[in-house]
């Protein structure tokens, strides 16, 4: 195991989510660690120690990740504290959810309705954005089917090669 490479991954995921999603860097760092740690379940204290972070920043990060659905809270028998682990199915739920198109298109519709009597040139920016969302919304179910087929085929080949 290359500890420096793991630390770099954790830090880079923190920066990525900060820049791309606008989350505090610790959200990405906590997620990064939960994706690679062993054991996969970590307490808030363990997260704070390994990430060299305050209890408050770990609390905020895990709360955000729980709300997004990327992690889950677990408790082991006999322990008086929660642990957190990455949810493997979270990516499937996150990337393929229809809400990522429905909500923006609903808001864009408000703008388009507000500009209903305006010249097409004024509506063009909203119409273009709406058409992008409509394009993705139409294609996502087929892309998901293709992905699942490819994933299952790759898993089947991997399992056959391991036997």
Structure characteristics:
single chain; 163 residues; mainly alpha; Arc Repressor Mutant, subunit A; three-stranded antiparallel sheet; 3 strands; 6% strand
Question: How would you portray this structure in words?
Answer:
With about 160 residues, this protein is mainly alpha-helical. It folds into 2 domains: about 5-90, Winged helix-like DNA-binding domain superfamily/Winged helix DNA-binding domain (Arc Repressor Mutant, subunit A), CATH 1.10.10.10; about 95-160. The protein contains 7 helices and 3 strands. It has helices at about 5-20, 25-35, 45-50, 55-70, 90-95, 100-115, 120-160; strands at about 40-45, 70-75, 85. A 3-stranded antiparallel sheet has the order 1-3-2. Strand 2 (about 70-75) and strand 3 form a beta hairpin. Helix 1 crosses helix 2 (about 25-35). The longest helix has about 45 residues, at about 120-160. The chain is extended.
